[in-house]
Every structure is written in C-alpha cells, then in structure tokens.
Amino acid sequence: MAATDTHLDHDTHDDHHDHPSDRTYVGIAIILAVLTAVEILMFIFEDDMPRNLVKLGLIALMVVKFWIVGSWFMHLKFDSNVLSQLFVAGLILAIVVYFIMLSAFEFNFWNDGFEDPGLPDIE
Amino acid sequence: MSDAVLTPDDVAGHDVAAHDDHGHHETNTGISNNKLAMWLFLSSDCLLFGALISTFLLYRTNISDNTVWEEPADVFDIPFTSLSSFILLMSSLTMVLALSAVNRDDQRNGRIWLLTTAFLGMVFIGGQVYEFTVFREEGLGFGTNTWTSAFFTLTGFHGVHVSVGILLLLGTVFGTRKSGLGKEKGETVELVGLYWHFVDIVWVIIFTVIYLIPIG
Amino acid sequence: MAIIEEPLALEAGEDAVARVERPLGDLTRPQADGSWKDWLFTVDHKKIGIMYGVAAMFFFVIGGAEALLIRIQLATPNGTLLSPEVYNQVFTMHGVTMIFLVIMPLAAAFANYLLPLQIGARDVAFPRMNALSLWIFLFGGIFLNTAWLFGGGADGGWFNYAPNSSVTFSPSNGIDFYALGLQITGIASLVSAINLITTVMNMRPKGMTLMRMPIFTWMNLVVQFLLLFAVPVISIALFQLTFDRLFGSVFFNTEAGADPLLWQHLFWIFGHPEVYILILPSFGIISEVIPTFSRKPIFGYKFMVISGVAIGFMGWGVWAHHMFVSGIGPISVAAFSLSTMFIAVPTGVKILNWLATIWGGRLRFTTAMLFAVGVVSMFTIGGLSGVTHSIAPADTQQTDTYYIVAHFHYVIFGGALLGIFSGFYFWWPKMFGYMLNERIGKWNFWLQIVGFNVTFGPMHILGLQGMSRRIDTYDEDFGFEFWNLVASIGSFIIAAGIAIFFYNIFYSRSQWKKAGMPNPGPDPWDARSLEWMTASPTPEHNFDEDIVVEGPDEFWHRKYGYDENHNVVRIATAEEVAQDGSNTNVHLPSPSYYPIVLAAGLPIIAYGLIFSLWLCIPGAALLIWGMVGWIFEHPDDPNAAHDHHDDHHDDDDPEALETGDDDDDAKELVAASADAGDEN
Amino acid sequence: MTLNSSAARRYTRVALVVLATLLLAACAGDAELDTRSDLAGPEARDIESFMRILLWVTYAVFAFVMAISFEAWRRFRIRGDDYTDDDEWPEQEDENSLLEMLFNTVPALILLIVGGFTIILHMELNSEETNLVTLDVAGSAVEWEPQVVVVGQQWWWEYQYHFGDVDVDQERVETLPNADIVTATQMVIPVGQEIELEITSRDVIHSHWIPSLNGKRDAVPGRQSAPWKIQADEPGVFFGQCTEFCGLSHSRMRMQVVALEPADFQAWVNAQMEGYPLEADDQAYLEALVAGDTPAAENSTQRAINTFRGKCASCHLMENIADDVWSQERVAEQLVAGAAPNLTHFATRTTFAGGIRNVYDPDTGDFNETDLREWLMNPADIKANYAQPANDDDPRMRGMPNLNLTTEEIDDLVGLLKGAGEKPAEFIIEETGVE
Ligand code: HEA
Ligand code: HEA
Ligand code: CUA
Ligand SMILES: [Cu+2]
Fold this sequence. Notes:
The structure holds 4 protein chains of 4 kinds. Chain A contains 3 helices and no strands.
C-alpha cells in the first residue's frame, strides 16, 4: 500500500523526511472519530438493517481504521517498504492461518458424507 | 591504518564510509536495528492476538451454563465501552503529536503529549478494570463458560499490552528528565509510538469483534 | 547501547572518570578477566553459541537415557522395568527434551556461532539480548527437567492433547512444568529470532546481497522467521493450558462445552512449522559441507534458496495432517492431504540438488561429508514415509503407530541430528582450534548410522503390523517381540556411537595437546564461505577488517580463479587471503551481568505459579532488577583499557555525548519489555 | 594411501551391507503386510492395496536416490588427507536449467497422480451407503440402519445399539437416549453389512481402530466423529487397540469386533434384549429386596445379588438385578467418565478388563474364574488405573477401585457373572484368546 510513495523516501541520511503535519494528524483523527461514530450508529440500528450488512459494514470499517492508523500514525506509508512487507506478512499469515483453522471447525460435515463415487479398482 | 581497521562502532560490519556520517549508521535496509526489531516483534504479535481472537470467535456463541444473560449483549455497556475505545483511539493522535513535537525539538510539548497519551491509556485501563468488576459482580467468572474464558483472556492480554505501553511512555518521560527529550530522542519516541499504535489497532479489531458484531 | 549495543565505544573526548561518577556507577559492566565469569556474563555470539551447544548436548544425554529406558522396557513383551505411570512420563519427557532442548538449541548453537561470521559481521545486532536468549533457554530447560523432582514429569505426550492434559486427568504437576517450561523456552526462541533476523537483514557487509549469502545463512533466516511466527501460536495455547490448570478457566474443559480440537489446531499450527525449524538448519549445514568436499559450488543455488523459503512458507498450510483421524471433516482432510504431499516438491529439489552437486565433483569422504551424505539418504527415507502419511486414507491405518515413530526419527535423527554431527566435524577446528580425529570419527559415523537403521528401520514394520505408539507393554502373541528386540539392540549401538563422539572430543584434544597444539590454520578443509577467512579458533572480534563481497562463495573466489580453459587455478593460499586475527584494536561489547539475572527471574516466577504465588515476588524482583540494571548499565566498562581511541571518533559532537546514554534507555526499555515483559 | 583405500573398500562394503539390510527390512515389511491375511473388510483392503502401490513408489524414489549416490561415490571419490591440493578440481558446474526444471516437475507430476488416486480413495472411504437390516427385536420386525455408537472412556470401549427410530447423529453422548443394547469391549456386527460408527468419548480423546476392517477414527469428547464405517466380509474376531494416548492404561485399552452370520447376529440380539435370567426362588428373593424387605440370603446367587446391589451397582448396571438401584447420576458422581461396563451379559463376551483378560479359557472353553477372582480382589493388580480421586476438589475416580471384597463375596460374584448370559460360540472363544 505504501509502495506508491517512493518519492517520499529519503535519499539523504538525514533524520527523517516529510512527515505529515500536525494538522494532517488531527484531520486523520477526525476521520477516525467519524468512522467510530458510524460504527456505533450501525450497532444502534442493528436491528433495522439486514444482519449481514451490519456485519460486513462493521468489518469494513474496522479494516479501514486499521489501515489508516497503520499507514499514517505508524508511518508505514512513509517508511521503507521492508517494514510494510514484514508487518503485512505477519498480518496476512495470521488471517489466513486462523481463517483456515476456524473453517475447519465449521465445515466438518458431520452427517452427510460424499456420494459414493464408485472406486475404480486400484488392485 | 585507521580507515582499514574496523572501528568499535562497527560491530555491524557495514560499509566504512558511513562512519563519517556520524550518528546515523547505514544498515543494509536503511532501517535502524531497533526499528526493524520492533516491527518484527509487532508482526509476531499479530499471530499472538490472532490466536486469542480466533479462540474467542470459536467460543463466541458458547455461553452454556450461564444464568446471567441471554446473550453477551445483555451485560455489555456499549456506550461506556465505545467511549473508552474512543479514548484509546485518540491516544494514538496524542502519540503522533508527541513524536512530531520531539522531532521538532519541542521538548515541552513532547512531554505534555506523551503524558497525555499515558493518561488516556490509564483511563482506558481504568475502564477495563471497571468492566471486569461489573462482570464479576454479575456472576461471570473466568471459568463460567468458554465464552468468559476467551473474553477475559483476550481483553486481559490486550490490557497487559496497554499497561506495558503506559510504562514505556512514563519511562520515556521520566527517564529523560536529566538528559532532555531532544530531537535525538526521536527514534525512542517513535518506537514507543509504534508499539502504542499497534496496541490501539488491535483494540480496533477487538472492539468490533467482541462488542459490535452481533451474534447469529 | 540500547538493544543495539551501539555506543560500544566510549565516545572520544569523554573520559572514563566522568562515567564512574554517575549515580548508578556501581552498575558498571563486568570485565573480561579470563575466568569462568567470562562465560557467565559474555555477550559474545561465539561463546553463546558454544554454550548453547554444551547445554543441548547435556540435555541430549538426558533425552537419550530416557530413550534407552523406553527401549529396555519394550525389548521384551510385558516389560516391567517401568510402571505405566513412569513410562508415560519418560516418553513424554523424551520427546519434549529431544525436540525443544536438544535439536532446537543445537541449531541455535550453529546459528549463533556462524551467522555473523558467514555474513562477515562482528556480532549480532543485539548482543545482550543474545545472551538473554541463551540463559532463558537454559533456565527454562532446567526448570522443565526439575519436574522429575517434584512429583514426576509431564505425562501427556509431547503434544499433550487436551483434555487429557487437564488437572482431572493429570493431577500431578508435570504438565504445569511442561506448559510453563515451554513458555519460557519460547521466549528465548522469540528473542533470538528477532535478533538474528535483524542481524542478517541489517548487518551484512558491502556487497553481500541476499542472493550472495551462504545457504546456511539463508536456511537459518527462514528458520528464524518460522520461529517468529510460530512461537506466539504455541504461547497462546500454553497460556490457555496454564490458565485452565492453575486459574480455573475452561478453554479445554469439555464439560463446559469446550472443543478439544482447539488445542490440536493451535499446537500443530505451531508444531508443523516446528518440524521445519528442526530440519532446515541441518539442510543449511550440509549445503556447506557437500560443496566443500565435492569441490564444486552448490548446484542450483537459486533453487536451493527458493525451495527453502517455499518449505517455510508451505509449512504453514499443512498442519492438520496430524489430525487426519480426529474427525475434522472430509473436506479439510482432503485439502490438507494434498497440500502436505506437495511439500515433497521443494524438499525433493534440495535432495536432488545435493545429488547434482556431488555428481561430477571430487568427493572426499571426511567424517563431515559422511554425515552429510548420510543425511541425504536417511532423510529421504523419512521424507518418503512422510509422503505415505500425507495420503490421508492410508494414514488412517498408520497414524499413532510405530510407522509414524519410524518416520519422525528418520527425519529428525537421520536428518536433523546427523546434519548437526556433520556440522560438528566440519566447524570444530573453527570453534576450538583443533580437529576431531577422523578415524574415530568414522567409527562414530558408522556406529551411529548402522545403529540408527537397526533401531528405527524395524519400527516401520512394527507399525505396519499394528503396534500402537505410546504403549508401555505389548503381549507376546501380538508378534511384535522380534523387531522390538532388534530395535532395542540398535539403540545401544547408537549410544555406543555417540559415546565415541564424546570420546573423540577428549581424545583429539589430548592428542593435539601432545603434539604441541598445532594450529589447524584458518581453512583446514579448503572451504568456501567467510567464516574460514579468519583465524581458527575465531578471534574474539571475528574479523580484522571489513570484507567487501563480490559474489557468492567469496572466500573461495579469493583463493581460486579460472585459466583460459576455464580450469580452476589457485590464485592465493588460504593463509594469504584470510585475516590472521591480530588486530587488537577492535572494541567489543563489554560483558553484562543482567541477561543472566533477568533470565533467572522467569523460572522462579514459574515455580511460584505452580507452588505458591509468594515465590513470584523474588522472581519478579529478579526480573525487574535485571531490566533496570540492563537499562541503566553503562554502555561500556569504564575501567577496561581502551588504548585505541583513535582518530575516528574525533568527529563526535559534544551534544551527542552528553545524552549518549539515555537516548537508548527508553529504546532499551521498549525492547526489553516488549520482548520479555509482556510476553510472559 | 593403501591403508586408506582398503579402509574405503571396507566402508563401501559396510554401506552395501546396510543397504541390503534396509532392503531386506523393506521386503520383510512387505511380507508382514502379506501375512496380515486377516484383512477382512473392503475398506481395509482398499487402503492396503493403495498403500502397497505407494510403498513401491517410495522404494523406487529411494532406489533412484541411492543409485545416484553410490554411482557418484564410486566414480568421483578421491582419496587422501590433503584437503588443499590444487590439481583435482572438476568442472565448476552449478546450474542447468533443464535439470532444475525436471527436479521440480517430475516429483510434482508423480504426486499429482498419487494425489488423484488419494482423493478418489478418500471419497470412497467417506461415502455412505444406506442399507437396511431387517431384525426381529423383542418380537417385532425392525428396519435397522446399521449404526453403532462407539464410546471411549478410560480405559474401555462401550458399544450402543439403537434399534428404534432415533437419530443418533447427535453431538454429545450424554444426550443420547438409552440404547437397546449396551455392551462393552466387544462389538458384534453382522457380516457383509456396512456398519456406520458414531464415535465419541466421555472423558479424553481415544481412537478406535480395528486394523483388519478399516483405519482409525478418534473418539473426541463433546463431538461425534465425522462418519466412519466398518464392514466385515466373513465371520471372525478382529482385534483392535486404542491408538490415541489416553493416559495411564492406554496400552491396555483393547477391543474386538465379532462378525457373525445374520442368523447368529439375530440370535445375539435376542439374547442381549433379555435381562439377567434368575431361578424362581432367586427371583422371589430379588423382588422381596426391591420391595424393601431384608430377607436372608439362602444361596450363593442370592448373596451375590445382595453384594452386587450393595457394592457394584453404584457403577455397574445389571438389568433385572440392579436396575432399580443403579442410576446414571450416581455413576457420574463417582466416575469421571460417568459410566462403567454394563454387566448384564457379561458371560456372552469373551474378554473383560478392557479386553486384556479372557472370560473363557481359550483352550478348554471353561469360564475363567482365576482371572476374574484376581480382578475382583484388586483391579489395579491387573490393569493400572487411577482408582483414587483425581484431586481434592474432585472425588471422582477413573477406574474400578479395590472394593475390599471378602473371598466369599468374590466367589458369589464370580458365580453370578458366570450366569450372566449364554456362553458364546466356540470359535469366538478360541479366536479371542488373549495373552
Ligand atoms: C524434522 C522433522 C520433520 C520433517 C522434515 C518432516 C517432513 C515431512 N513429514 Fe513429518 N513428522 C515429524 C517430523 C518431520 N516431518 C514429526 C516429529 C511427526 C510426528 C509428530 C507426532 O505425532 O509426535 C511427523 C508426523 C507426520 C505426519 C502425521 C502422521 C500421523 O501422525 O498420522 C505426516 C502426515 O502427513 C507427516 C508428513 C511429512 C511430510 C510429507 C514431510 C515432507 O516434508 C517430506 C518431504 C521429503 C521427501 C519426500 C524426500 C525427498 C524428496 C524426493 C527425493 C523427491 C521425490 C519424491 C516424491 C516424488 C515423493 N509427518
Ligand atoms: C528430536 C528428536 C529425537 C531424537 C534424537 C530421538 C532419539 C531416540 N528416540 Fe525418540 N522420540 C522423539 C524424538 C526424538 N527421539 C519424539 C518427539 C517422540 C514422541 C514422544 C511422544 O510420543 O510424545 C519420540 C518417541 C520415541 C519412542 C516411542 C515411544 C512410544 O511411543 O511409546 C521411542 C521408542 O523406541 C523412541 C526411541 C528413541 C531412541 C532409541 C533414540 C536414540 O536415537 C537416542 C540416542 C541417544 C542416546 C542413547 C544418548 C546419548 C548416548 C550416550 C551419551 C552414551 C552414553 C550414555 C548412556 C548409555 C546413558 N523415541
Ligand atoms: Cu484410550 Cu488410548
Ligand atoms: Cu507435520
């Protein structure tokens, strides 16, 4: 995600580079606050909306907030790509592995096995 | 001789020319060792919280043996938790402001923002302690059912992370009383900040997963 | 200072006296004085590596003795040497010891010793953290084994399935020791993973790109990443287990509706990457040994690297092959069966590349080389039986029988351990300055390989005959007694082989002393990578000068070139190329008291959790003392003689001086607490 | 040099011997597989034949690796201890795209083919066939969809047969209704029928494995396993052993499957539906007891009834003798698993104590009083168990405790158990003989 901003990467050894200004930070915080408000609104009107929409919406908002904090506050957008790659590696690994784990609990097909495919004789 | 000989600072064995550029050692990645290590730690922590969150997801609906509630939402105090979540979220703002002040060599504001951040963190922890007490009073113990076990462990681990963060913030503020919190402390503050933001985004997930997303 | 021992040097212009006057002046660092304290407080990656090795070999004798007890018990039907109760503890502790306290730390020994050398660095990125890992591991291992003194070891098997691991089913404290002990050693692995990854990523010399690193370094990098991501998973599982056993939570209590498969998933999500953590260092070792003694570069370097990374990567998607019969549902089983099978592809690439390296070479069968080709053949057997397990339908007949026991001993003993022995023979002169005797070495090898096959070969048969694992006896009429007896005899042949190895160490040393301690020279084997480019044994500062790297196998290319017919010709001798270690002008990180202090706190806290929370107080006190001392410790020993404040430091600006220390304090705090504090 | 080369030859010889041993071992393994001629079910046979093909694939791969190695050793080795002589440098070949491609693709192709067959076999093993067995149960004809609930507990197996119209595919064993037939350690099935197993556990994880009929499947508490099945093509007794480590007496947790012709199976069902058969005066004595009187026991059976009701019935059920004092809740208070073997038809089984002792002497066919006496004297002598409370908070036990029975009580009980059902057919007694 931060890959596009290479021009922001420092070429000098000098300490750090163009940080966003404090004002940008405050702006970001306001965005975060608004997103949180939306989340809570969704929660309040949960019963008036389709369940799946609520769930999807909440998850989407969560991801967006995560991404904003990660890329601006944690500077991933401005830092070396190596860091983003490291972090995203851990993140994706965690998501994928645990997703598979949880689905193994869900899809365990207790009662209906496969149709008998008629085994070709492998003798 | 001296330029051929590895110098003390050069444990890293990097390129000799970099020495003239004092104070900023060139590493292969251009990232300081400390920062790289911190990020490695954070990416490892993803798996840690991942395991806790998945355990919670697995046991999310398992509230057997429970005489206290119909569903968890009955005991949650969402406005309260929302507020404390919001406070934690905003502490991320004060944290970047602290870093930005330190990087400007603005020591006074740097300290103020760091202390604010720590304070907000403490408020959050206070809220969590309060919530735990309420739960206990309602009769929800650690071992009441798998839901409570998973809940207390997940939020508790997060609480421990926040508390460590508070110690780090306070350590930074008070540990530099003599030496000052000048620009050269930028990296220190940045590292504390990374940790702090991470703890914050973990809560973003926890808040949604535990409190907001409806069961069923 | 900080976690990065940066101000190793006293900054020029600052005098030692000024430092001693600091309020915490008594927290100066110890000095190297040539006594045992050098070892206790060292932060030198080489000493640390050696201590890892010694500790692991010590645990190996314990784990091996447990194995021999198992084999005596099973040598005859209805054996009575061990009661069922003790047998269960013995095989559990055997597995736990061998995996967590033998193979992993032996790999860590090599990684610590060699990684900085192979990339031409002076030390690891965080020397004190390195010492911390060692002591945490060692104390954790000792803690785990003290379970024997407090009512018996863990008795749930090394993977300790819930709910058999709950207090109801295992009322003794053994499993508490297991959970907390592994938690502690896990912290050690995590700290050292962060340290070594940072080292490899950040501290390579000029010209050493990633694709010029030796395969050994590569494989260890992969291993450290696996540890970085796998350790937290088992940490959580162990926390849950501990909480269940000690604090009344119900993660694995089926009466409260828990699902016991949660433990299995978490354990094996860690556990399968773990087996690659065990094997990849060995793959790295033999990837150095085979080219050296074949006189050829490693065949298919790129594929070797990529396949190693691929193994590490795919290792995350196969864990449920340990759960084929646990009832996870046919779809999952099918998916995991297929994904497991295909791990054989990158592994096969490695095997075949080693064969291609040997092919057309000039092979010298030194002991190191024998062990290395031993790995190639023996690991193949184990890998192939692994593939037969991965066929889920077939595995329903194999799982939890001795066929599995045969598989994993073939890959672990025949792969990981033989590889490590190969490493011993190969790097011994570099580490200790004398060569191990080759003739005795060959006895060692042949006894070990014959004994190994006689022990574990028959287990394939026993398994296919239907002998269950983890049974303390079997009846005569099951038809198991012949092959069990053979296996038991074999295990004593192995023991003889390993005893010979220990003998070899002492014998070779005394011969060497008798001969007037001849130096083996920097490069006794005509080898290829940078660690051979400095004196033997490695001087404390590793290298006298920076090395600028121009390609893979840098050292070799400095010794040899090609003539017009593309034949190899020598252009320099090793002695000409290698550094002689004579530079005394190098400043090294000072020893430190605090790693060992900090580490000592952990087992005490763990005892406290088991026996009485009061004990946690002194434990925590040690921990805090360690951390505080760590932070406020001088970056350097002010009294040490520094005769080399050379001009280099003249450019220090006064401002940096003033604040030199504290700057890092907070960083240190971050690192220390992040890595030790909140992990436990 | 000479010394070295002779040493080298010696090593080569040793290496060859090792290889030969290995090959022999492999063949022996194969031979063992052949001698496992008691493979008696289609599933086991399918797995076996696939496994045999697999083994040959692995032999081939291994032979290839070893052939290359030996040939390389033979051709390219040089001798001598000087590791730095400059003459002997081969061509420094370190890549070859074609070879490297092959190293990837050939194994991948082999595995692709193996994988295809794996999936087919896997689906076959997990498929279900619905076949109904017509049985006469207590006088009425029942269409039984052959299902057996298999429950593991420390350290024995329970088998439940539900003939009624119950859906046994439920998650927890505790919620299952009472079964029509409950037996321990020995599962009896009709030949030629695919039997669906619903495997679960009451305490820790066990694994149910009858190697001659099919692979294993774990018994996980709180879950009922994904479907698993067995089928026997001919009458016989097939042994099994718990294969998931389950604590102290894991090695002594064994079981057998007895496959019977349909008619014999029907007879077995009929017998199992009966309660304990009592003589008229003993029956009268029992009824008096049930009514609350305390009549004096007049013979061994009556004394045994008394002892059983007083000491054994807190855990064991014996229909018609103790069903009024026995209760599931009481058992659950005493045993972690909450169940002990149902003893009503003890004498129709051929093994006891988790399948490690004979009920009948396999040579003479006599009731095995010796072992039974020893067991009743002190069960822990025969089979390690934790017949003591698990910990201070939890008084429940996990095995049969020593009841401190007197010799006379033991004699009486042995007599009672001897009468618990018909003696099974000769061939079962002969084939089951353990130890
Ligand atoms: C060093 C450790 C190590 C290594 C490297 C491996 C490697 C492999 N393992 Fe193993 N395994 C263990 C350690 C290891 N294992 C342990 C400790 C257990 C037991 C845990 C317990 O229950 O206690 C276990 C158990 C285990 C099981 C579970 C069995 C069961 O309990 O039912 C399975 C199932 O799939 C499996 C599979 C594999 C496979 C497919 C590989 C592959 O990576 C192997 C790949 C290698 C080759 C295949 C050989 C070389 C390849 C070629 C020459 C190319 C050509 C080959 C073909 C075309 C096939 N292993
Ligand atoms: C890391 C790897 C490792 C290693 C190296 C070994 C080495 C050996 N193992 Fe181990 N083993 C495991 C890992 C390992 N094992 C694991 C993970 C399990 C599963 C546990 C479980 O089920 O939970 C297991 C289980 C296991 C079993 C199955 C137990 C059961 O299921 O009931 C057996 C049985 O024979 C066995 C035997 C041996 C033997 C004979 C050796 C020999 O190779 C050991 C040789 C070493 C020595 C003999 C010591 C050194 C010798 C000397 C110093 C000589 C002088 C000293 C003396 C004579 C005391 N092992
Ligand atoms: Cu039951 Cu093992
Ligand atoms: Cu595995």
